Amino acid sequence: MMRTIHKIMMTVVCVASSFTVQAQTPGALHVLSDNHAFYRLQQKHKFLLLPIEEKEENAHLRIIKNNQVVKELNCRLAINKTDYSVPLKLDENQDSEILIDITFSNNRRSTGSIKDFVAWKELKTSDSFDTTNREKYRSIYHHTPLWGWMNDPNGMFYKDGVWHLYFQHNPYGSQWENMTWGHSTSKDLVHWTFEGDAIRPDALGTIFSGSAVVDKNNTAGFGNGAVVAMYTSAGASQMQSIAYSTDNGKTFTKHANNPVLTADIPDFRDPHIFWNEDIKAWNLILAAGQEMNIYSSKDLKHWTLESSFGHGYGNHDGVWECPDLMKLPVNGTGKEKWLLICNINPGGPFGGSATQYFVGSFDGHKFTCESKPETTKWMDYGKDHYATVTFDNAPDNRHVAIAWMSNWQYANQVPTMQFRSANSVPRDLGLFTDGGETYVSVVPSKELLALRGAKTGKPTEACELVINIKSQSKPTVITLSNDKNEQVVMTYNPKERTFSMDRNQSGNTAFSDMFKATTVAPTHGTINQLRVFIDKCSIEAFDAAGKMAMTNLVFPTNPYDKLTVKGTARTVIYTLK
Ligand code: FRU
């Protein structure tokens, strides 16, 4: 899928460059001190390509036009060598003069003469930015940013046949910084097109995680069917702001009276808004320290604090982040219960980031957990499943979740350069009971079936393994390997009711000493069919019936092209595209 997009992007780039001036060194350097310089250029082209050196520290750039700062950003401007370039979009009014004020971090003073920094030779202007994929580990059918860093999925909604996925994006480098909402769309939930950056930092701060709703009844007064996004403005403090879109999420106008919600709590973020038909009003749930605050509103602008949930409940070994709250049917009972999603970092079952959840009741004012406070439930038992939230307004009352496939323990170090991180495949959520407790069920969304191509005899870099387990009397051991003796071993043990994945010998694990792991999940009964999605550097294993999910990254030197399945099972492999 991304291959298709890259091909299209390449075409765009080629066409554009045939009538534009080739990239060239464009401006003049004025050294002002050991760590401070001006770079002055005449604006002639759409982009200034900034050369980035990953291991360097951030420099602070202020883009000045006519004595006014028009943009500020941090990037690891190249000092010794250029790893890759990122595009700084210059404004439309051509032929104006631009001054870039650049401050390197103070301890750069020992680097030597600022005038010799590589950046000055490699800054280029251009009318195009080449996003052709240069990455061995870029996913084929998972959403990835075309360039730059990505973390949490944000503001996901469905409207008029299109799925919208925003994401925490750094457009100026492949490590976390300059938080901006990138935007991608899909007509089928599996093939994504990058639409550009939708919400950019402003005087209130950078744009942290949040959500978006379709305001069908114009409760906010921004227009019928306007898309209203709520995000955290992360300045000196964290506060909540809103922005609306009347062009189906393509562009947003920030509300003039932001912020709409403040508090004197340091960790106060990641608002998730949703229409609650039970009370005919909006609810908002957000992370407030070690609890989730719940609010209500009639107009999305004025919010009343209703209650807080979480004190003494579940895991508190890290920061509570990125909540979601929804009503779901409990399989086979005709009843409904509420699911409260609470992402936590660190504190996950195998270290670092993970998604815990609570099941209970919610009356629009207060969430009551039905389990004992000491009960902790995890949505996915892998190491690379975080910031999970669902789409607003999904058709057929579906609750479709997407996670960020990484872990804050090593997300900035994984071995890619042009981009960092992919999202999980979409998953439909539900509830089921086992031993008197209600758990979340996680099933790969039906749209993934459309990716299936030909059946194949051996695994490929992008494929799905369907393993039908014919006997529950002994373990099923699934080993993926390659000619470099790299392997991933998955074991379903029916007696112990567990599924595990061992990635200790999976390939490149050296970039972080927290990467090697064997992750283990409870299966809540028997698994009759396993579905395993492989895509370059990720493995997502599911009980097809939804009782177990496990997501782990792997970085094999060569794709795993060998599969052995021990036990009594019938395996089918589909190539995915
Ligand atoms: C979770 C998180 C959020 C925050 C965002 C910043 O991964 O820390 O709490 O809004 O990332 O990028």
From TrEMBL:
<dbReference type="InterPro" id="IPR018053">
    <property type="entry name" value="Glyco_hydro_32_AS"/>
</dbReference>
<dbReference type="GO" id="GO:0005737">
    <property type="term" value="C:cytoplasm"/>
</dbReference>
<dbReference type="GO" id="GO:0005987">
    <property type="term" value="P:sucrose catabolic process"/>
</dbReference>
<protein>
    <submittedName>
        <fullName>Levanase (2,6-beta-D-fructanfructanohydrolase)</fullName>
    </submittedName>
</protein>
<keyword id="KW-0732">Signal</keyword>
<dbReference type="InterPro" id="IPR013320">
    <property type="entry name" value="ConA-like_dom_sf"/>
</dbReference>
<feature type="domain" description="Glycosyl hydrolase family 32 N-terminal">
    <location>
        <begin position="142"/>
        <end position="435"/>
    </location>
</feature>
<dbReference type="InterPro" id="IPR001362">
    <property type="entry name" value="Glyco_hydro_32"/>
</dbReference>
<feature type="domain" description="Glycosyl hydrolase family 32 C-terminal">
    <location>
        <begin position="459"/>
        <end position="565"/>
    </location>
</feature>
<feature type="domain" description="DUF4980">
    <location>
        <begin position="33"/>
        <end position="141"/>
    </location>
</feature>
<dbReference type="Pfam" id="PF00251">
    <property type="entry name" value="Glyco_hydro_32N"/>
</dbReference>
<comment type="similarity">
    <text>Belongs to the glycosyl hydrolase 32 family.</text>
</comment>
<dbReference type="GO" id="GO:0004575">
    <property type="term" value="F:sucrose alpha-glucosidase activity"/>
</dbReference>
<dbReference type="InterPro" id="IPR013148">
    <property type="entry name" value="Glyco_hydro_32_N"/>
</dbReference>
<feature type="signal peptide">
    <location>
        <begin position="1"/>
        <end position="23"/>
    </location>
</feature>
<dbReference type="InterPro" id="IPR023296">
    <property type="entry name" value="Glyco_hydro_beta-prop_sf"/>
</dbReference>
<dbReference type="InterPro" id="IPR013189">
    <property type="entry name" value="Glyco_hydro_32_C"/>
</dbReference>
<keyword id="KW-0378">Hydrolase</keyword>
<keyword id="KW-0326">Glycosidase</keyword>
<dbReference type="InterPro" id="IPR032313">
    <property type="entry name" value="DUF4980"/>
</dbReference>
<dbReference type="Pfam" id="PF16352">
    <property type="entry name" value="DUF4980"/>
</dbReference>
<dbReference type="Pfam" id="PF08244">
    <property type="entry name" value="Glyco_hydro_32C"/>
</dbReference>
